[in-house]
Design the sequence.
């Protein structure tokens, strides 16, 4: 039997007993207007609107396949279902985790029979298409090319790397954005009041709602699943409202007092950086954990670590900045929950690294002099001498090419007269920077023409 998710029988059962299905299924939008978020895909005249027959034309010309690319819980399955309902087509769902070529062929044969016998077209929703091998994806091509099915494939990975070119070129690629807290909040409130949801059986105080938003992390399905569990627990206890304690008990995750848009956001971030600066690795990990558990953007944390690597460590450990940059790149590629491991790796390395703020104080002092007007003209021998007429102006005349000098350091003036002799960089003797402290004085002596 075909794995047809929304058969007529299933819909009939749901209509007779709405509570028989999970809340996330019951609250699934029935039209594009009920979809939360994805405003860029739902504008009048957009390809998605035209795909369901809105705006005339019956859908984008030449499109028999759609690829939905976005994070979990952003509405990929929902959009596929809405398309099938709006176009009055059969809806069949397969998951690339469990299905193979055999199952795909069975769906295609069923689609042919439905089209021939009943004149009903089929929407095949293939979840996690990136898990299909090249050969498995190839098996979809005849059905797409001959329009035996309307393929709607979903992926959380970049389709330019995970979907074969022939299929990608025949598809309309739609990119879904993460849902905002406002998007998820609106969905939660609808689920609380609508009859197909919880029908007003319980209320959701602000602090409990805020915790559910943190738990959700932009995932609508996760938010509704947590709400349903918390509501059930509250009703079992005879409570009229879902308390924060009930939410915590139900989802087994403590509420972190942390406002991503307010003081707590900046206070905890500040404490993380100051703990790293103070070399308290355990405190740093505590604040990192608070940010992670509160649903902080991992890219924000990674940016703070990159700044810390230069601001508080610098040349005392030249590997600190590459470590932080690598962590930021890894975080951007993998996201949570695995990104927590990468952020922990970088935080520990930075906290235990020798510290120096010499790079910070050096650029601060140099910038202050520039703001105070200590600039002046570039010395003539350092000016560009490649253009016609530069020699007549004396530009580049007298410049000594350092590579022609033994030791590679030529005794000549580089800074403008206004700051000549100024010392901005004062290296410490901590960690690897001790080597620079020994070198910099010798270099300055050579620049002044003083013999070793």
Sequence:
């Amino acid at each position: 039997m075909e794995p047809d998710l929304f058969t007529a029988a299933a819909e009939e059962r749901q209509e007779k007993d709405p509570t028989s299905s999970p809340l996330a299924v019951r609250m699934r939008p029935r039209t594009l207007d009920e979809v939360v978020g994805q405003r860029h895909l739902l504008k009048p005249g957009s390809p998605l609107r035209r795909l369901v027959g809105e705006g005339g034309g019956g859908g984008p010309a030449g499109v028999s396949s759609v690829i939905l690319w976005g994070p979990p819980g952003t509405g990929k399955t929902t959009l596929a279902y809405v398309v099938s309902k709006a176009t009055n087509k059969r809806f069949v769902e397969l998951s690339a985790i469990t299905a193979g070529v055999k199952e795909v062929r069975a769906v295609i044969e069923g689609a042919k029979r439905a089209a021939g016998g009943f004149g009903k077209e089929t929407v095949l929703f293939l979840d996690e298409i990136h898990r299909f091998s090249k050969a498995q994806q190839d098996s979809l091509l005849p059905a797409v090319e001959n329009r035996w099915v309307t393929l709607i494939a979903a992926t959380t990975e970049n389709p330019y790397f995970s979907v074969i070119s022939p299929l990608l070129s025949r598809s309309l690629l739609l990119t879904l954005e993460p849902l905002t807290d406002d998007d998820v909040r609106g969905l939660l409130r609808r689920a609380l009041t609508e009859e197909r949801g919880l029908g007003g059986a319980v209320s959701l105080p602000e602090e409990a709602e805020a915790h559910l938003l943190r738990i959700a992390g932009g995932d609508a399905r996760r938010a509704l699943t947590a709400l349903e569990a918390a509501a059930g627990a509250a009703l079992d206890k005879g409570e009229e409202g879902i308390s924060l304690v009930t939410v915590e008990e139900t989802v087994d995750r403590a509420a972190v007092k942390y406002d991503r848009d307010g003081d707590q956001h900046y206070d905890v971030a500040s404490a993380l950086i100051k703990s790293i600066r103070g070399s308290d690795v355990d405190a740093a990990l505590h604040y990192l954990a608070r940010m992670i558990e509160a649903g902080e953007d991992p890219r924000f944390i990674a940016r703070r670590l990159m700044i810390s690597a230069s601001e508080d460590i610098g040349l005392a450990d030249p590997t600190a900045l590459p470590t932080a940059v690598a962590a930021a790149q890894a975080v951007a590629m993998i996201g949570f929950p695995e990104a927590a491991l990468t952020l922990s790796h970088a935080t520990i390395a930075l906290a235990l690294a020798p510290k120096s703020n010499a790079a910070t104080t050096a650029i601060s002092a140099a910038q202050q002099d520039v703001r105070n007007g200590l600039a002046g003209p570039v010395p003539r021998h350092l000016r560009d001498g490649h253009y016609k007429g530069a020699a007549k102006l004396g530009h580049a005349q007298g410049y000594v090419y350092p590579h022609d000098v033994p030791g590679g350091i030529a005794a000549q003036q580089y800074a403008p007269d206004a700051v000549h002799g100024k010392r901005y960089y004062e290296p410490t003797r901590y960690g690897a920077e001790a080597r620079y402290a020994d070198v910099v004085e010798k270099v300055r002596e050579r620049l002044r023409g003083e013999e070793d």
About this structure: The beta strands are 65-69, 90-95, 122-127, 150-155, 172-175.
